[in-house]
């Protein structure tokens, strides 16, 4: 149990003892006072007073008089209808620094999910198209949730689901054969060429509607594994997969299992047939549907009238495959918010089929650019490749100016890491259900709510650490009495609770917000005090221990978000 959790538990235990039987006090009842001067946590007595038919202010006063201090609680006082608890600064400081120094990269981890398994379905780009900025949000959000669940003690199975079949894939392969038959492409350009060919084919079909029938025939041949189409599909599919794996590595997206639409399609059709046999599904105008009107979910189309598969056909098979192979307590799907109704239908159908695992759709909204939305059909997507190279180019110039003694490789590697931090943090810093307008300049700024701002804080602390290499003072946490020091200690003490709260809601934006707020507290503190005071070695040692604890915890938070930290920028 971490320091703040212990302090909260001490307050709850004291309240239980003072109140006696008949009213159950839980940690969830405690609140944060609006003014820090009132205390660190507060117990509202409204419900207790109502049960006793007493005035809340009077009850709070009586209760405060019965509750005494404890190891981490120094003061208990009534303020209106609240009983406020103030932590013991010295005890809290000593315990927090000790915990972080001992736990290091493990600080903040909990056992919230011990004994439970979750499979997270994310990283879902489609082959034969380039990886664009919308895919980035899906991948990094899913990976951050995986990291967060792992930090909370869950056994996590990260699963990538790749779209490698269907009409769009057939269109790209048809376009390749029709317009570029026999052409050779450089390895590093293949994924880009597939996107260009897909766009080219889309525009051609708009002008020549009869081509739709040709593409439909190609799709049928692909589903039947007819040659040479199937061989061409395998070859070009691998072009996309090779590109995806490189991108995943750069963005720290780390699926452990891979699923493909093409591998579950046949199984999905068998499942639909069983749904008919079991009376869960029925025929309607030749198509197969599951009637969910009694659950206000309309009818769920699971197979087309011509017998071809839909997303639903494959998603039913995928869910059952994951259940069979991993037996998870929860299946979590990181998918576009526009699919919310669809997932309600899917989950309702799976429940009718007897699935007992908790099914959760973690929805996220679009990523747009300052000048509007994107469309792969129109060819105006901003690809990951374009975004990355543009950002690295800018950051390389800036890094080279700051470090004239660095070689080209070091400059490039540093610019790359700052670019990745900029992209990932921008994607994770706000609620997933809000639209992101991705502004490159804002994302790369070292001022404000950005990844580089957090990285800069960590690097600044590293610089102070180097200057203190010969420091010989004794670490005495009791010397840390400055208001800025106490604010930082409370932020560090809060971190494990943030991880636990985020783990219950999958809101990784809480971690980004905590990191930004803590970095701001450090900046304020750094400008108010001399961390390294030549006249007081012990005070310097204590302050160094504190800021190293800040550095470690900020690094932990960034790692949870999937961001690699830098010790020099």
- Record the strand order, biggest sheet: 6-5-4-10-11
Mean pLDDT level: 95
Beta strand %: 5-15%
Q: What is the name of the CATH superfamily of the largest domain?
A: HUPs
CATH topology of the largest domain: Rossmann fold
Largest sheet: 5 strands, parallel
Percent range of helical residues? 40-55%
Shape: flat
Radius of gyration: 28 Å
Number of domains: 3
Task: Write structural notes for this entry.
Helix 13 packs across helix 14. About 1% of the residues have low confidence. The protein folds into three domains: 85 residues, Arginyl tRNA synthetase N-terminal domain (Gyrase A, domain 2), CATH 3.30.1360.70; 246 residues, HUPs (Rossmann fold); 177 residues, Isoleucyl-tRNA Synthetase, Domain 1 (Orthogonal Bundle), CATH 1.10.730.10. The chain is flat, with a radius of gyration of 28 Å. The protein is built from 19 helices and 13 strands. The strands form four sheets. Strands 6-5-4-10-11 form a five-stranded parallel beta sheet, with helices on both faces. A three-stranded antiparallel beta sheet has the order 1-3-2. The protein has a three-stranded antiparallel beta sheet with strand order 7-8-9. The chain starts with a helix and ends in a 9-residue tail after the last helix. By secondary structure, it is an alpha/beta fold. 55% of the residues lie in helices and 12% in strands.
């Amino acid at each position: 149990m971490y320091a703040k959790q212990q302090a909260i538990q001490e307050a709850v235990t004291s309240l239980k003892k003072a109140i006696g039987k008949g009213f159950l006090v839980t940690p969830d009842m405690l609140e944060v006072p609006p003014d820090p001067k009132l205390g660190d946590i507060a117990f509202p007595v409204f419900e207790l007073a109502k049960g006793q038919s007493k005035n809340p202010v009077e009850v709070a006063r009586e209760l405060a008089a019965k509750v005494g201090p404890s190891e981490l609680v120094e003061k208990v006082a009534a303020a209106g209808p609240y009983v406020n608890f103030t932590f013991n600064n010295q005890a809290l400081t000593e315990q927090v620094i000790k915990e972080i120094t001992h736990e290091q990269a493990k600080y903040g981890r909990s056992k919230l999910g011990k004994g439970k398994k979750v499979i997270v379905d994310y990283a879902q780009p489609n082959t034969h198209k380039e990886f664009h900025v919308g895919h980035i949000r899906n991948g990094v959000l899913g990976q951050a949730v995986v990291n967060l669940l792992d930090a909370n003690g869950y056994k996590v199975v990260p699963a990538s689901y790749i779209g490698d079949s269907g009409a769009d894939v057939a269109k790209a392969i048809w376009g390749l054969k029709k317009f570029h038959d026999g052409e050779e492409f450089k390895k590093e350009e293949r994924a880009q060429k597939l996107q260009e060919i897909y766009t080219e084919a889309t525009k051609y079909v708009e002008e020549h509607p009869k081509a739709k029938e040709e593409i439909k025939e190609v799709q049928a041949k692909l589903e039947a594994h007819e040659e040479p189409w199937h061989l061409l599909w395998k070859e070009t599919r691998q072009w996309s997969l090779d590109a995806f794996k490189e991108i995943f590595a750069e963005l720290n997206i780390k699926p452990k299992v891979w699923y493909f639409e093409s591998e579950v399609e046949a199984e999905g059709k068998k499942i639909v047939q069983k749904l008919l046999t079991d009376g869960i599904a029925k025929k309607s105008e030749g198509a197969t549907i599951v009637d969910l009107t009694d659950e206000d979910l309309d009818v769920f189309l699971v197979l087309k009238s011509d017998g071809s598969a839909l997303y639903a056909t494959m998603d039913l098979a995928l869910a059952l495959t994951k259940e069979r192979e991993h037996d998870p307590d929860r299946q979590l799907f990181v998918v576009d918010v526009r699919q919310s109704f669809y997932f309600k239908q899917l989950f309702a159908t799976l429940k009718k089929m007897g699935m007992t695992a908790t099914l959760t759709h973690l929805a996220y909204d679009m990523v747009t650019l300052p000048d509007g939305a994107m469309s792969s059909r129109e060819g105006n997507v901003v690809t990951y490749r374009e975004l990355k190279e543009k950002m690295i180019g800018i950051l390389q110039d800036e890094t080279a100016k700051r470090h004239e003694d660095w070689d080209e490789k070091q400059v490039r590697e540093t610019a790359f890491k700052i670019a990745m931090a900029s992209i990932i943090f921008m994607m994770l810093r706000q609620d997933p259900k809000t639209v992101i307008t991705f502004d490159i300049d804002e994302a790369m700024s070292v001022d404000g709510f950005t990844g580089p701002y957090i990285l800069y804080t960590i690097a600044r602390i590293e610089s102070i650490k180097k200057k203190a290499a010969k420091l010989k003072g004794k670490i005495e946490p009791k010397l840390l009495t400055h208001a800025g020091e106490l604010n930082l200690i409370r932020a560090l003490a809060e971190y494990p609770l943030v991880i636990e709260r985020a783990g219950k809601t999958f809101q990784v934006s809480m971690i980004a917000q905590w990191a930004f707020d803590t970095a701001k507290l450090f900046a304020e503190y750094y400008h108010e005090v001399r961390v390294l005071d030549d006249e007081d070695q012990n005070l310097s040692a204590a302050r160094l221990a504190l800021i190293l604890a800040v550095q470690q915890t900020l690094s932990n938070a960034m790692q949870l978000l999937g961001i690699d930290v830098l010790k020099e920028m």
